[in-house]
């Protein structure tokens, strides 16, 4: 069983991985060779070609898949990226929210002062005749 695994299944899986990885690769050329030539090498020399492809493709790819952009290039023109939505702002960091909150508090304070001057000890804060009916 181990002999079958080492002699047939593992090399076949290696070859299949090399073919699929090369076909799915988005770079047209690696180390000066076109992708079609890599496919021919992997198919003609199954084990050595697949090993060579895996070694070259993993070395030629950067460690991280981050796309760096020049300082003069806007982020919206980056390839293969969806446009990013602006991150949500917490209410206490949002100047518009804070402005509306201050306006609401000032309005409530003015209404409270006006309600106190009208002479009623109305606990509902409503004007005369607006309270609950008995």
Overview of the molecule:
The protein is mainly alpha-helical and 134 residues long. Among the domains are: 2-60; 90-118. Helix content is 53%, strand content 3%. The protein has a two-stranded antiparallel ribbon with strand order 1-2. α1 (2-24) runs antiparallel to α2 and α1 (2-24) packs across α3 (46-60). The protein is rod-shaped. It starts with a helix and ends in a 17-residue tail after the last helix. The mean pLDDT is 74.
How many strand units?
Answer: 2
* Termini separation: 93 Å
Major beta-sheet overview: 2 strands, antiparallel
Could you state the order of secondary-structure elements as H and E?
Answer: HEEHHH
How much β-strand is present in the residues? under 5%
Number of helices: 4
Determine the structural class based on helices, strands and strand pairing: mainly alpha
Low-confidence stretches: none
Sequence of strands across the biggest β-sheet: 1-2
Assign an overall shape: rod-shaped
| Average predicted confidence as pLDDT | 74
**Could you estimate the helical fraction of the residues in percent?**
40-55%
Could you give a short description of this structure?
This protein is an all-alpha fold. It is 53% helix and 3% strand.
Name a few traits of the molecule.
53% helix; mainly alpha; two-stranded antiparallel ribbon; rod-shaped; 4 helices
Can you lay out the helices and strands and say which pair or pack?
Layout: H1 2-24, E1 29-30, E2 33-34, H2 35-44, H3 46-60, H4 95-117
Antiparallel strand pairs: 1-2
């Amino acid at each position: 069983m181990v002999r079958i695994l080492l002699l047939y299944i593992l090399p076949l899986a290696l070859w299949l991985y090399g073919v699929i990885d090369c076909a799915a690769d988005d770079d047209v050329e690696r180390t000066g060779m076109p992708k079609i030539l890599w496919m021919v090498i992997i198919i003609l020399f199954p084990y050595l070609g697949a090993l060579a492809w895996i070694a070259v493709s993993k070395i030629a790819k950067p460690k991280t898949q981050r796309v760096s952009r020049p300082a003069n290039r806007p982020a919206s023109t980056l390839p293969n990226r969806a446009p990013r939505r602006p991150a949500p702002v917490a209410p206490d960091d949002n100047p518009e929210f804070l402005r509306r909150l201050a306006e609401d508090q000032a309005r409530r304070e003015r209404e409270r002062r006006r309600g106190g001057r009208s002479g009623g000890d109305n606990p509902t804060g409503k004007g005369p005749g607006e309270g609950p009916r008995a």
